Amino acid sequence: MKQAAKSMLTDPQFPEHKPTRSHVSVQVLGLAHGLTTAGTDPFKRGLFRLMTKGWGTEWKYTTTLSPTLPCAQRTCLMTFRWKKMSEMNILITGAGGFIGQALAASLVQEAKATTITLTDVVEPAAPDSARPTLRCVQGDLTSQDLCDSLLTKDLTHVFLLHGIMSGAAEADLELGIKVNLDATRRVLDTLRIVSPGVRVIFTSTTAVYGPPPSPGLPLTEANAPCPGSSYGAQKLISETLLNDYSRRGLLDGRVVRLPTVLVRPGKATGAASSFASGIFREPLNGQKSILPVSKDLSLWICSPRTIVKNLLQARDIPKEAYQGGSRVVNLPGVTVSINEMLEALKAIGGQEALDLVEEKRDTLTEKIVESWPAKYDTLKAKQLGFTEDGTLEQTLKDYIEDYGTTQT
Question: What's the rounded Cα separation, in Å, for the pair 26 and 51?
């Protein structure tokens, strides 16, 4: 079956579309992944297996089948019309942040990501393995002129990672509205006019939820959000707008609600959850760190490696896979208490590292973080193929491997 399908891909009737193994995949009956229509049909399952063997950029075909014919005859009677889909022209906003940098480093390894643009208020650094088709642009997305220059009709995918973090957005309402809401709307409104139907991956947050209605019970996407912070409210408004533009066919949106990302390298950010990375990052580098919340508090966390994998997964999911009209997904994570985090720090860095954590409660930070639920049912994410995270101990080992420490 696989050989028969491969022979049809190189049929001399279609010399102008001769594919190579690195540039072809099969789109079964018009669906990007075909799994939902494959069922028990051996022919469809054969094509699906062929599609998932790493053939790369998608090709579309149309065909007329007689379901009563044996599989071999149906293969012979197929009529194909091939059309090569465009290669990926990708834009990442907020690309100067560490998730943007990690995502860019992953994208430059993909042959199908032919053009990549990174933008942020400070010019983002280019990945070490950058190629000539990658460019870095400094600019402010609150400027329509910048949006007009960046948001062009040839874009195929846009990752919206920019934003003012939770603590900073709570401290400065106007700035949070300007960046998290106004700039995001400006981008979406420009895209729906200039590049209608472009795929937009928007990083939201579980901070869209307020305190859980029933503490201890996991939340799903069906639970009504009621943000306990301005940051969560601004993200929720943007989610709703992108969901509506997707419903109308103006954009092809994917909204992924991120857990607290652990461990973030570099300096502390304006996020209320910044301490969660700080109580690992600083002690492992021989520096003191402040713990501003109760040790009994729990967080929903995820490692940077898993976040990047799931951003790429969000990019590749066909829109037909989203059921019920909503493009919102709570990404997988792990529930851990601050006590468990400190135990993991001691296991990795020893008592010396643990002694560098100083407890100093901060009422504002604690109030914000306490409003975030720590347990989620991520069945929807799993059904869509998103990756589950590993253990906290493995996350710390990965962080040390990726970013290192000054501890010996």
Answer: 5
Report the C-alpha dihedral over residues 190, 196, 198, 202, rounded to 10 degrees: 50
Distances in whole angstroms, Cα of residue 193 to Cα of each of 87, 145, 148, 153, 400: 21, 15, 11, 9, 44
Residue closest to 399 by CA, chosen among 210, 266, 276, 265: 265
- How far apart, in whole angstroms, are the C-alpha atoms of residue 191 and residue 9? 34
Catalytic residue among 231, 245, 322, 376: 231
354-382 pLDDT tens trace: 999 999 999 989 988 888 899 999 999 99
β-sheet bridge partners, residue 92: 118, 159
pTM of the model: 0.77
- Is residue 209 among the annotated active site residues? no
Report the alpha-carbon distance of residue 239 to residue 233 in Å, rounded: 10
CA distance 42 to 347: 51
Tell me the sheet residues that pair with 300: 335
pLDDT tens string 137-155: 999 999 999 999 999 999 9
